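Researcher: Next entry in the queue.
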Amino acid sequence: MKHPIPNRKPHLRGLNPAQLEAVLALEGPVLVIAGAGSGKTRTLAYRIAHLLENGVEPRKIAAVTFTNRAASEMRERVAAMVGKAARSLTLSTFHSLGARILRAHGKRLGLPDHFAIYSTADQLALVRRILAEEIHIAATAGEEVYDVKRVLSDISAWKNRMLTPAETRQEVAEGHVRGNRSDDYAVLAADMFPRYEQALRACGACDFDDLLLLPVTLLRDHPEVREAMWRRWHYLMVDEYQDTNSVQLEMARLLAGPRRNLCVVGDDDQSIYAWRGADLRNILDFERHFPGARVVVLEENYRSTQRILEAANGVIAHNPARRPKQMRTENGLGPKIDYWEFDRHTERSAEEREAQMVASEIGIRRFHERLGWRDFAVLYRANHQARPLEEALRRTNVPYRVVGGTSYFDRKEIADAAAYLRVLVNPRDDLSLRRIVNFPTRGIGRTTLLRLVDAARVEQVPITEAMRRVRQIDPVNAAQAEAVEAFVDLTDRARERLHHVQLEIHEGRRADVSLASWVEEFLREIRLTDAVQAESSNERMAQARANNLRDFIQSVGDYERQTWADAPLPDEELDWEPPTLNGFLQGVSLYADADPDNASDDPGADEVTLVTLHSAKGLEFSHVFLVGLEEEILPHARSVQEASNELAPDPIAEERRLFYVGITRARHRLTLSSCRTRRRGAESIPRQPSRFLKEIPAELLDVRLADGGSSLSDSDKESLRENFFDQMREMLG
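Model: Structure for this entry, 733 residues:
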């Protein structure tokens, strides 16, 4: 049913008919199919405002998405519309919501009050430790040893399917034998799974999969928890629903409860995370999961030109399993899509020439159209494709950033500081203890630590408890025992001081006491800055690491200020508690792993963006270059190989969706390129253009010659020559 447009209330103005239909559909299950650039965030924000306008209490509304960036954007939009009522809404990621449920009810599953949240780096360290000490296998990349990332990926996939270790073992035992290395990994991961779970619980820790799986266990098996959540939230909204896995579907179903007020927003054509466990069937089968659901389709695009959308529509129409939609826009036809093809020429490889074209075109278009560097992005399928692009941009002095580099929180000095604090908050955290027990060096070497580990395993206690009885452990000598006792004394005294500081903060006894000042004092006492500088290879790195630790302390202060700023007013009812060190540490883990591609980037900087297609999801740019459009790159060689497996989901369809996502990142101009050859060592290997290029209607493409100069038209070139000096004077002020 289409609702009439005239005489709208102020909070409903500015919506197109389909958006309005989605906003007004408040009761029961609703599926909003939101095509690329169709204003889904705006629609969700207006829907929340309409719920509030209809008398729903803010604290009864929850909206869930996948990244902290998306949750923050949603909160800003809603706050601009409804003011302080936005403070009482629950707007978070799936994992943050899960952590919230576990903080309130996790004791029922044996979790400690101050459970740790292990990042991906922590999980990999735990898997390495189990491989080395329990399974006695080397854990590195190579032919004769095992890649821990692949082992962890298998475990994560099983948890996302809600399989227990016992069910996994049975599945592997009865499963299809491929006759290759995959069989070895399956057996190893199945053996690892129960050990890994036991180690997590022993450390009082959860991984990111647990933040979804354990809340589902609570909601499913504990009626009192389920009913408490139903009383708490009456309306649930889920963004990016095409990216949900089996656990998230079950979590949404259980939280919606008997009211069934669940509104999900997504686009099956942008489902590109099957390798993370996302299940396309969740959005395709929504009406089967929630009978009687209303479906609304948003097809009007506010981002791209008509030619870009026609290219995207032409490509994605080749996917068989999808909800039909035809994106359209009133933005105008726009320029044709440039397509360049490169071959090796004299001493320069095809990929070098491709990268040089990108750098040259960016410089020319920026000058001619008076744009910022931030208006340009270069998208590619795999990280290794960035190297020639970076070299070309550096040669031409073009500033750029590579999205998805090392996370700030994965840097060694930051991980060391966080590990110290986690040991103080949670003495059971053996993984963090192992990391810092002899850093800075304090005379507790590997031999001593292994004896402590053996003693703890025999007594089935945390390593901290074994350390307290170090004099009874044979053959630890007197000097080693003294070093261990000094460390225990250090952590005990720090833990006691922390307790008093948090008590004073919570009771408001002293305004000059803060967690940040306590953290600064503690890190100074253990001389962590001196230690990380001493192991640095040069002065510049040493200073950078010291600066990073200062930033870490500042982030504690930022967390405190934000927490106090969110404190409820006398007339507000909020789920709030004063700042705690555990609250800060859990926030660090949630932020670092929920936004792995953006944790260390500054999106406000005036720089060209280099980004993989997967990480480009949710971004948009005026000019987009999509490079390396060749078979075995896009689609990826692995997907081409897996396409022959009739039992697997269609991997080519996923690669086509990835191409569709790349195309729809462009607002004004899209440039595509491929290479006829690529270097592999000293060889030049022939390449074939991507099959997806043939799916773009030919009349949309402007095929460029590799040696034909820039993509500027003759009239643009003449205008550039005539106005060159005037534009230079204007740019230089």
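Model: The mean pLDDT is 88.
Researcher: Noted, moving on.
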